[in-house]
Amino acid sequence: MKVKDVMHKGVDWVSPDTPITEIAKLMQGHDVGCIPIGKDDHLIGMVTDRDIVCKGLASKDFNAARMTARDVMTEGIHCCREDDDLAKAVHHMETLKIRRLPVINKSKRMVGMISLGDVGQSATVDLLTQCVKGVSAHHH
Q1: Backbone phi and psi for residue 68, each to the nearest 5 degrees, phi listed first
Q2: What percent of the chain has pLDDT over 90?
Q3: What positions does the domain CBS occupy (predicted)?
């Protein structure tokens, strides 16, 4: 099974100047927990719902009207290819202890997003168990 068989298609990225209120609306509208951040046609980071809460809401100088993706995003991006084997992508998520990965095509364009939830709906039990153990390990 390939990554493209289970990914969310058509997830857009937004610029670092996007207000976090817009990002929250995108998350709600697409039913996703993270939005990739791009600049000059390159992915440069990711904003998760947790970033908005922990680095946004919880910060002393929180101002919803002024805070942007740049203020809360995690820089650096990990991704996988749409034609990668699903097991490889899951192993990548496990190693990095992350729950979501942007998916790129051969031209390095983002074509979707894969999450543990997507994997859970279509992966084998063994693959999923291995991934959940790995991703959850840092929460003890």
Answers
A1: -120, 175
A2: 31
A3: 7-62, 73-129
Query: SS3 string of the chain?
Result: CEHHHCCEECCCCECCCCEHHHHHHHHHHHCCCEEEEEECCEEEEEEEHHHHHHHHHCCCCCCCCCCEHHHHCEECCCCEECCCEHHHHHHHHHHHCCCEEEEECCCCCEEEEEEHHHHHHHCCHHHHHHHHHHHHHHHC
Residue 123 pLDDT > 60: no
* Nearest CA-CA partner of 3 in 72, 68, 90: 90
Q: Cβ(90)–Cβ(119) under 8 Å?
A: yes
Contact 20, 56 (CB under 8 A): yes
Tens of pLDDT, residues 33-67 = 889 998 887 789 999 999 999 999 898 888 888 99
pLDDT of residue 22: 95
Name the phi and psi angles at 107, rounded to 5: -85, 10
| Domain architecture of the chain: domains with CATH | 3-139 (3.10.580.10)
